[in-house]
Amino acid sequence: MTDTTDVDVAQTTQWWATAVTRIAPGEIEYRGYPVQDMIACADFVSTIWLMTRGELPDETTRRLLDAVLVASADHGPQAPSIASARMAITCGVGINSAVANGVNVLGDVHGGAGQQCVALLTDLVSRAREGEGAIDDLAADAVAAFRERGAFVPGFGHRFHPVDPRRDPLLRLVEEAVAAGRLEGDALRAGLALEAALAARGRAVPMNIDGISAIVYAELGVPPELARGLFVLSRSVGILAHAWEESQGGRRIKGPLPPPLLADYRGEATRRLGDGR
């Protein structure tokens, strides 16, 4: 049996010690800022950055984070995360369960490419800074390695859009910040080098929302896994909107195919047991 006699109050209160929020009777602080000051002077995007990164963002960071969160908010009901939430809400679950259902399908394949691309860009920039080669050459080698093992380069190409409409406006914001000296631009150069290396192999494969978002997050110093978390936070807005819309339609138990359509059956032909009765 574990002896608990030496567990004191200090050990107990340290169990969930946090640097994020301080709570006391009549007091709430986010990273040291009283909530009443945040309400008066801050916006939601700045609060996200403060809570996850520890300090309020400068204007460049705030503008870029705001833009990338807007760009990632939704991609229509054909996106598995959205469809999953819409189907869930027709089964009688609450709005929170429907949103959770959508969020829970955001995995490595659907929702993870941004994290993977941040990691790739960060690696290329780090290796270039350590003198392993020029960024263009390192990017070309990386593309060749992905192709050799038959893998997609994360953040590039889109199954639906020949050119992702979110690419250019976000890219322009990053380029403007780099030109003004507010960002270093290394992740931007790495992303464009990957895009050029893909195009050099015979067909243009422009960066998608995951790729341009990864450039933004890498330029802002966001770790790869946190970048995925921020994408999930953004996409939760679309998931919520679609789940709420579906809940207002009144249809119950809405499956993946509209009636009277049924999924094709490709198993064994009908077989009988016993005398068939």
UniProtKB/TrEMBL annotation:
Spell out the family assignment given in the record's similarity comment: Belongs to the citrate synthase family.
Q: Which superkingdom? A: Bacteria
* Enzyme Commission code: 2.3.3.16
Protein name according to UniProt: citrate synthase (unknown stereospecificity)
Which biological pathway? Answer: Carbohydrate metabolism; tricarboxylic acid cycle
- Top enzyme category: transferase
What CDD domains does the database record attribute to this sequence?
CCL_ACL-C
Q: Which GO terms describe its molecular function?
A: lyase activity
Query: Can you name the source organism?
Result: Microbacterium marinilacus
The root-end lineage is: Bacteria, Bacillati, Actinomycetota, Actinomycetes, Micrococcales
What keywords appear on the UniProt entry? Lyase, Transferase
